[in-house]
Amino acid sequence: MAQLSKHPATPAPTAPERETTGHLMLRGYIVLTLFATLAHTAVFNLLGSTGAVVAMAVLTAGILGIWIPAIVHRRPTRFPWRRLPWVALGYGGFALLSVIWSEWPSATLVTWALWLAVTINALFAATMLTWQELVRALSSALKWILGLSLAIELWVALVLRHPILPNFVTVPDGKIDPHIYWVRGNLFNDGRIQGIVGNAHTLSMMCLLALMVFGVLYASKARRRGALIAWAIVALILLYKAASATSVLCGVAAGVVLLIALLMRGARRPSQRTAIYVGSALVVVAGVAGGFVLREQVLAAFGKDSDMTGRFEIWAKVWERAITHPVIGNGYSSPWVPWDPGFAGWIVDHKLTVFHAHNMWLDVFFQLGIIGVLLMLTAWAALAWRAWFFAVDRPRWDLDAKRPYSPLSLLPTMVVATLLVEGLAESAPIMLWGWMLLVMFSFKIKAVPLVGVGLDERSSVLARGEQARQVP
Q1: Cα–Cα distance between 86 and 105 in angstroms, integer?
Q2: Which residues contact 227 (CB under 8 A, 6 or more apart)?
Q3: Closest by alpha carbon to 312, among 357, 365, 250?
Q4: CA trace torsion 177, 178, 179, 180 (10° rounding)
Q5: Share of the chain above pLDDT 90, in %
Q6: Which pairs count as long-range contacts for 27-32, CB under 8 Å and 24+ apart, including other chains?
Q7: Beta carbons within 10 angstroms of residue 74's beta carbon
Q8: 3-class SS letters over the chain
Q9: pLDDT band for position 176 (50/70/90)?
Q10: What is the dihedral of CA 172, 176, 179, 184, to 10 degrees?
Q11: pLDDT given for residue 296 in this prediction
């Protein structure tokens, strides 16, 4: 039975803090916006292009309706304006400026509006949630993607027994290219599945991201760890069935970064860290060199040809067009709008107009030239630098140098490694969910560099410590 002490130095017991209904609703809304961004192609396949635009506009309007009054109520001077990811925002500003010389101005404005909505979504989530809440929100959004992907694959394979097209359009008679389908119904055969997102590679990246999020939550001893294990098994099954070679390489990169970070955390002296850096660099260089020499065997092991599924041809065509405007580019459009005359029928794969360059750096060079590449390179380098030391440096805000590491601080650096490797074969890191993670983690690490102890929270902790020392 609990006893209440009347000693003046002992504070009276209080009930544990509970989340208010308003904050729970806020978290739920952020989960919805994260889902809409991570699974934007699912919204597109369900509602069509117009419906997807309306859905994103409504969600963004809701964010602004919540966020602006919150900033005003807390006084704008308290908002961490200086902590914003200004280089990433500068990239967006230059993208908007490119409408002046863009060869596809309407596509520039449309896709920039999408960029703005995704950026607002990322900044809002990073501002309103703590680190623990943010990772839990990502976990919830990814669970919805995995659960709906498994459900729709089961429905198509067992109930409908035939593939479905985007927007549930009636499947016409005759042979159709499988790449046009939303879900092919390959869950119980040797084919690749696409899930609710309608793309095998995107589904595999969602599974990989989910495994990282579930892993750090499990390591941090979150509640319902058994459920996390179950969801991780679902993610592994879907990852296997999606069969994306790029995601496998991304997973290897994330695993290597995780291993190095854990070794760095275990180092006790600066010389040990130096040895880990040197040894890791040698291993990575040797691995990259070996992969380059044995590239044909590696590609064959993943079922790919030496042309990397037509990417060399795509890169050649994009480079030929990009080099005509090397400084400022041809105009922003991420993704490429397939019905715009500047892109329609330019690069066609499986009777579909390709909507990105399948390489983030080439895509940026094509759109915004060397200026855009430098801005994007700076934004990713800044995030990679901060995320690395966020993961390997022991949390400190006073003289105590023995505080334990948080498993949650490992997530950003694993995500950065994953997206940078993916960017070699895809353009996802510069748009939609990839861009959202860049902005969200960049802002969150700058504004709250310690898990569980942010700028305001740190002041509260120190104030409570000072009050405790003054008790007679």
Answers
A1: 24
A2: none
A3: 357
A4: 70
A5: 63
A6: 27/129, 27/133, 27/136, 27/137, 29/62, 29/63, 29/66, 30/124, 30/125, 30/128, 30/129, 30/137, 31/137, 31/140, 31/141, 31/144, 32/59
A7: 11
A8: CCCCCCCCCCCCCCCCCCCCHHHHHHHHHHHHHHHHHHCHHHHHHHHHHHHHHHHHHHHHHHHHHHHHHHHHHCCHHHCCHHHCCHHHHHHHHHHHHHHHCCCCHHHHHHHHHHHHHHHHHHHHHHHHCCHHHHHHHHHHHHHHHHHHHHHHHHHHHHHHCCCECHHHCCCCCCCCCHHHCCECCCCCCCCCCCCCCCCHHHHHHHHHHHHHHHHHHHHCCCCCHHHHHHHHHHHHHHHHHHCCHHHHHHHHHHHHHHHHHHHHHHCCCHHHHHHHHHHHHHHHHHHHHHHHHCHHHHHHHCCCCCCCCCHHHHHHHHHHHHCCCCCCCCCCCCCCCCCCCCCCCCCEECCEECCCCCCHHHHHHHHHHHHHHHHHHHHHHHHHHHHHHHHHCCCCCCCCCCCCCCHHHHHHHHHHHHHHHHCCCCCHHHCHHHHHHHHHHHHHHHHCCCCCCCHHHHHHHHHHHHHHHHCC
A9: confident
A10: 60
A11: 72
111 token code pair: 């896709």
Nearest CA-CA partner of 210 in 146, 122, 165:
146
Give tens-digit pLDDT for 209-257.
999 999 999 999 888 889 999 999 999 999 999 988 899 999 999 999 9
Tokens at residue 268, please? 């006790």
Output the six-digit token pair for 72.
């005003």
Which of left, alpha, beta for 56 (phi over 0: left; psi -120 to 50: alpha)?
A: alpha
Q: At 14, is the pLDDT very low, low, confident or very high (cuts 50, 70, 90)?
A: low
